[in-house]
Amino acid sequence: MEPIRRELKLDRPPKIGPVPDFAAQLVVLKEERVSAFSFTFGSLDAPIIRELHDLGMAVLGTATTVQEARLLEDAGVDGVVAQGSEAGGHRSTFAAPFEKALIGTMALVPQICDAVRVPVVAAGGIMDGRGVVAAIALGAAAVQLGTAFLATPESGAHALHKKALLTRYQADPTRLTAAITGKPVRTLSNRLTTELEKGGFTLPYPFQGSLSADIRQAALRQEQPELAAMLAGQGAPLTVSKPAAQLFRNLVTEAEQLAVRLSVGAKDAN
């Protein structure tokens, strides 16, 4: 990372911070009594989930395989988020090597729906009403969208990130890399991922992320998108820039209209 630091005129690498204290985070969660809690990177112990239930929380866990979905159901979650390989951000795999859990949303959702009794939320590659209808047709009770909302005015994503989604990277593929944070993450392809992967050595998560944090932050400050981390899913070329409320209304309208057309088509076929 040192050549990149010199290029960005950074004096010294950051200190590698401690691992976040999940127990302390859980205390805050209980104090706030949120209505719903969705977690990833593993499964919670059943007693913790029961405690959250006693506080009135709905609890969802993320799975990338059928095995993980069953483990989450056994732990007592109220629903399973089925994360397909198209999804942007970190891979949530925890019960298998991530390479064996790169299952597309279209293949993963119906398998998990057939394997568990709790509701399933489809995530990964869903960008518009077509994706919503497809996920529901596969058995999902709901959908979860991330990349689709990154370019909205309300999004906390950096302006350079939004611009990259809407222009430069429209035709570029995303890639999976562990070199940014130490855990496989889907991001837009750029020079940062290429340079970090050249090193050939990656610290475990989250230490790699601590070590690269100053580079990623400086790249945004200095408006050098090629050296910034820009997480996104494979649906990125479908990104649009609209207010979040309008985008949400469009999703609902598109899905409803498509569902009607499909219903009419099915009746005509009969």
Summarize the structure.
The protein is α/β, with parallel strands linked by helices and 270 residues long. It has helices spanning 2-7, 22-32, 46-54, 66-75, 105-115, 129-137, 159-166, 191-198, 207-221, 244-269, and strands at residues 36-39, 58-63, 79-83, 89-90, 120-123, 142-144, 174-177, 185-188. It has a five-stranded parallel sheet with strand order 1-2-3-5-6.
What would the keywords be for this entry?
270 residues, alpha/beta, TIM Barrel, three-stranded antiparallel sheet, 8 strands
Description of the molecule:
- It contains 10 helices and 8 strands.
- The chain is of the alpha/beta class and 270 residues long.
- The protein has a single domain, classed as Aldolase class I (TIM Barrel, Alpha-Beta Barrel), CATH 3.20.20.70.
- The strands form 2 sheets. It has a 5-stranded parallel beta sheet. A 3-stranded antiparallel beta sheet has the order 4-8-7, with no helix packed on it.
- A hairpin with a 7-residue loop joins strand 7 and strand 8 (185-188).
- Helix 6 crosses helix 10 (244-269).
- It is globular, with a radius of gyration of 20 Å.
- The mean pLDDT is 94.
